[in-house]
Amino acid sequence: MTKNKKNVKKVQIVDLETEEAEVIEEPVEDKLVSACEADEIKEPDNFKDLEEKLAAMTENWQRERANFQNFKRRIEDEKKELRKYASYDLAFDLLKVIDYFESSVSFAENLPPEAQNVIIGVEYTLKELVQILSAHGITPIKIKEGDTFDSSLMEASERVIKEDVEAETVVEVQRDGWMYHDRILRSPQVIVAVGPHEPKGGDVVEGGEND
Predict the structure, then answer these.
(1) What confidence score (pLDDT) does residue 85 get?
(2) pLDDT tens digit sequence for 135-187
(3) Is 6 exposed, middle or buried (0-12, 13-18, 19+ CB in 10 A)?
(4) Rounded to an integer, what distance in angstroms lies between the CA atom of residue 15 and that of residue 99?
(5) 0.85 exceeded by the pTM?
C-alpha cells in the first residue's frame, strides 16, 4: 500500500567556511489540515431542520408505500373473489335442471317398464352433473327430517302444528339447498313444525295466534 506523500520544500544551505552547499528537505505545513485540526467543524444553523424534514419525508414515503401495498393486496383479493364466484348465475340456473331430473326420477315407479331405461339414463346424467358441480365448489346442503330449523340457512315454506314433534323441527324437505364454496347459492326449502307449547317469542303460526 502506498503511503500518502507529505508536501516538502527543498532548501539549499551553504557552509560559509567551506563554501559547500547542501540541499535539505523541509515539510510544508498543510494549511487546510491545520485549520481543520485547530478549529472544530461547525454544523450549519439549519442542519437540524434539514434532518427533521428528511425524517418526515422518509416517514411519509414509508406510509405511502405501505398504503400502496395494501391497495395492491386488496385489488388482488377482489380479483380472486371475482374469479371464485364468476359462475354464480350459471350455477344457480343449473339447479333448475337438477330439479327437473330429480322430479323425473321421483316419478319412475309410476312409469311403464319400457320407460325404465330412460330413467336410468336420467339418473346417470344427474349423477354426472352433480359431480361436475361439486368439482367447481357447488355442493348440496344436507338437510333431513328431524333437523332443527336454522333461519340463517333454511327457508320455511310452511309451518304446521305437530303435537308429537318439538317446535322448530324440520318435518319435510321440499327442495334441496346448495352452497357455492362458502356462500349459500340456494336455501333449502322446508316445512317446520310448531309444537302446541311453543315458548314465547316463537314465530307466528299462520292461521293461529301467538302462545
Answers:
(1) 87
(2) 999 999 999 998 999 999 999 999 998 878 888 999 999 999 999 999 999 99
(3) exposed
(4) 128
(5) no
CA dihedral 70, 72, 74, 79 (to 10 degrees): -170
Identity of residue 181: H
* Residue 168 burial (10 A CB sphere; 0-12, 13-18, 19+): buried
Structure-block grid coordinates of residue 104? 323425473
How many alpha carbons fall within 13 Å on the CB side of residue 28?
10
Q: How far apart are CA 146 and CA 188, in angstroms?
A: 14
pLDDT at 104: 85
Strand positions, DSSP E, 73-180: 138-141, 155-161, 169-175, 177-180
Instruction: Write the DSSP symbol of residue 207.
Output: T
Which tens digits make up the pLDDT trace of 27-67?
655 554 444 454 555 555 677 888 888 888 998 999 999 99
Phi-psi region of 198 (alpha: psi -120 to 50; beta: other; left: phi over 0): beta
User: Average pLDDT over the chain, rounded to whole?
Assistant: 79
Q: Residue 29 carries which side chain, given as an amino acid letter?
A: E
The answer to whether 157 and 189 have CB atoms below 8 angstroms apart is yes
- Report the alpha-carbon distance of residue 29 to residue 6 in Å, rounded: 9
